[in-house]
Amino acid sequence: MNTNLKISNVTKIYPGCVANDNVSLEFNSGKIYALLGENGAGKSTLVKILSGVIIPDEGEIYLNKNNLKLNSPLDAKKNDIGMVFQHFNLFETLSVFENLIIDSDEQRESLREKIDSIMKKYNFSIDLDIPVLNLSAGQKQKVEIIRCLIRNPKVLIMDEPTSVLTEQETSELFLSLKKFSEEGILIIYITHKLKEVMQLCDEVAVMRRGKLVSVSEIKNENIESLANKMVGQNLKTIKKKKAKTSSDQLIKITNLNFTSEDPFETNLMDINFSVNRGECLGIAGISGNGQSELFQVLSGEIISDKNCIEFNNNYIGDLDPQERREYLMAFSPEDRLEQAAIPQMKIFENVALNNFKSSNFFNNGLINENKIKEHSKKIISDFNVNTDNIELKSQFLSGGNLQKLIIGRELITSPDLLICFNPTWGLDVGAINYIHETLIKINEQNKSIILISTDTDELLKLSDKISVIHKGKLSKIMNAEEVTSEKLGILMGGVN
Amino acid sequence: MIKIVKRDQPSRAIFFFTPVLAIFLTLVAGGLIFFILGFKPFEALKFFFIVPIADKYGFSELLLKATPLCLIAIGLSFCFKSNNWNIGAEGQLTFGAIVSGGVALLFYEQEGFYILPIVILAGAIGGMLYASIPAILKTYFNTNEILVSLMLVYVSKLILDYLVVGPWSNPEGFNFPETRQFSDSAKLPLLFEGLRIHAGIFLALAAVIVSWFVFYKTYLGFQMKVSGFSLKTAKYAGYKGKKMIILVFLISGACAGLAGVGEITGPIGQLHREISPDYGFTAIIVAFLGRLHPVGIIFASLVVAITYLGAETAQIFMQIPKYTGQVFQGMILFFLLASDYLLFFKIKFIGSKK
């Protein structure tokens, strides 16, 4: 049976922002649709409207010509619309089976049979009786998908499903989605990853600032054309020049171990690497494999043995972050809002977080506000932060502008080494480009970078050498040109 | 129809308005309680909040009670601002009083200008010593400072009990649980003849000014602010977390200790079992009611001090227990916490659709 889903003139307005501006779209089963857009383009709002989480201010939704009134997620389920969210909604301590039957009133036995047949059909192998916390991210996602399939959905919406998956898991997911589509389920795939759209989808709808900007067939598009539609400007393609091979070693990590008292943290085991001047070392991996711990050990938030870290011929393993800054290291942590900056504080106050002696931000224990403000103005203009008011609270900066401020704050000391962790996480394409250009510039000035990132494309674009972290261990360090994303995917999955 | 909407950002105006709202709601609820108990609400509230401070004597009593509250709350705000939960100020007050009282007794029947400064200093040191225990346990053994500081309150009260009944009890005191009276040189001077308000108020005012300067003008204040928002950021910035924990506890202990000195060398003049009607605990309410801002704390300490006086007047004129004062203090905190909801949410009235 053919399924037709029609969104007609949907508008949703939030205070100060139009999330969906008169959006009309039509989907037919048998095809996989991509809904593409930057963060904040309005795609999440639209799918939340489709799944009953948000009620639109205006507009109608029709499924096979029936006007749907979706006032709650339950209404969506009843109308055969299934949704798999980016963040899993599973009870970690309950078994897989319990998680699957939790919102169903069918008989346990008949459900079990149904689940078994679904798993057989799509080649899923998951033990139904172990607790969910023992599953990998890919398996958890399959549990979420099965939970939708139990209800024989007509529509399946996937919200950025690959952000937690390895390359292998991603290609498995794509196979399953294609199979679902062949069986007549209408698939709507939300993402901002262009490559995936090209690989998987048949049609693509692009959104920008709440408006639908284009609907087209994939065969008429390519990555550049889609990127331009998303951003609404012609992007410069950034290419990194091959770094001059320098043998001047800047930082060397030897036999570094870290054992955490917290069971939710990852222990680091026998980490060894070195970075030369002008080089960018990329560290790939799926999040939660020790990246955060590695960053903290490198920044000095976690102190290690003095001799484990040699920087510029000094042993600095036992120094705290502020002391390391004096040796010309700089750090940009992953969490912009809870660690790298304090949103409730003003821009210039956030600048004062990177306090190094020659800045004179604080003299004899007193705040030297003029100095900090002068410095902040320089950062704002040098790093293109889109505001001219340094008294503004940082929470009013967009993610991209906040990250520019943070990177600018760290770079204004012209450090020899910048260590950054997911520097473009959650940013829009324009801001990502700016950050990438900045990082390339650093390398060109013969300064070094350690880039810990979960974004493989970013690593391949910026790194000279790449290593993969898996369960607290680093793989051997490879030259970037020998590496492909497939090879990284295998290493990230833990196969050696 | 009423709809609750999340605010885009916490409102600054509401931030200072909610304490006022909390006080208003406390009055309404208090009036209701009086009504249920069979009193005329307005008359009862008048006895509670207006009669006690209607004359010169009453006003001096108000300042007398507000002084320790203000001093302790200022100290506590150093801790609370930087994410350290010292709730044992009552213990630090008691221990400060014990040390300064011991020193004052050493100078029994001696006179000299040098005695009072030594006694005051001893109280501050006593409070600092006592506050250093939860601080050191927290920094080096990862204990929870809330539990440790709270439990140490009872330890210090038992030490005081032992001392005033045992070794330090007044030999001519007919076995009353109290020490000898301190000499005049060990007492804080009274400000006005016939009123009990004493020079301790200047200690509180000095603390207000110094704390304002530290909070808003110094590197230490900046570090406290950062730590208060996010300990992760403080660590990333490279602030010496342990040093700061110990420092804020010492400051807070010193203030509580000084409040203890103010009580025993002021209105009391000796050590006995009940040197503080839980000023150390009530000051926690004062600190939050004053929004951890030095000026706010001045006003908050005056408001809360009235509940002490009102309870006494109400006991005399209306024969209701003076613990009603604590009921009012509890209500203020309760309504303050409840109305903090308005910081993050606003209430919208929407005309119903026909």
What would you note in describing this structure?
The complex is a heterodimer of chains A (496) and B (354). With 496 residues, chain A is α/β, with parallel strands linked by helices. The relative contact order of chain A is 0.11. Chain A has 17 helices and 23 strands. Chain A has helices at 43-50, 73-78, 96-101, 108-121, 137-149, 167-182, 194-200, 223-231, 291-299, 321-326, 336-340, 347-351, 369-382, 399-411, 429-444, 456-462, 485-492, and strands at 4-14, 17-28, 32-36, 58-63, 66-68, 81-84, 155-159, 186-191, 203-208, 211-217, 249-258, 268-276, 280-284, 309-311, 314-315, 329-332, 362-363, 366-367, 417-421, 448-452, 465-470, 473-474, 478-479. The model of chain A has no long low-confidence stretch (mean pLDDT 87). In chain A, strand 9 (203-208) and strand 10 form a beta hairpin. With 354 residues, chain B is an all-alpha fold. Chain B contains 14 helices and 2 strands; from the N terminus they run βααααααααααααααβ. Chain B has helices at 12-36, 41-49, 56-81, 89-106, 115-141, 145-165, 200-217, 219-229, 231-237, 241-268, 279-289, 294-318, 324-339, 341-344; strands spanning 2-6, 345-349. Chain B is globular and about 75 Å long. The termini of chain B are close together. The chains are: A alpha/beta (496), B mainly alpha (354). The A-B interface holds A 15-16, 299-301, 320-325, 331, 333, 335, 338-342, 344-345, 349, 352-355, 362, 365-367, 393, 395 and B 8-9, 217-222, 225-226, 229-230, 232-233, 235-240.
